[in-house]
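Reopening this ticket.

The earlier resolution said the output was attached, but the attachment link was broken on my side. Pasting everything inline this time so it's all in one place.
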Amino acid sequence: MNKGLIGRLHTALLLLGTLLLLPGCSDGDDSGVIVFQSFYEPFARSIAVRTLDTAAQGTLYYVDEGARDGIPVLLVTGSGTSVTAALLTSHLENLRDQLGIRLISVQRNGLGPSTHNPDWGYDDYVADVTAVLAHLGIERFHMFAISGGGPYT
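Inline output:
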């Protein structure tokens, strides 16, 4: 089996696992039935990119969409994309709201408006995510990635 297919399967399983862990999705209770939307929102709406200034990592850029009391789900975007790639999920906004998902994405080193530091790696991204989640008061979260974001999960 080739590595690309394995990566796509891994991402799909992570997303499926996240959905199965959400309340009402796996307990057989009909009150938690998911009703998929029959229309899609336009991609024209904007996503607010927020900033967090830190002493250790400098300015961090992140997206925080959804209800503050929602289930936090961290999206790690693909290679060459900024946190605004979270906008690509806007056509699922009603479904996210119905599931009670709070979508968070933290900018990786050198993408979007962040400054590129060639010496930074995975551990530095973990520090960035930890700082943003602490700032938001989030201790536990689900996580999934798209494409080149996979190695960061």
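Reporter confirms the inline version is readable. The chain is about 25% helix and 20% strand. Helices lie at 3-21, 93-99, 122-136.
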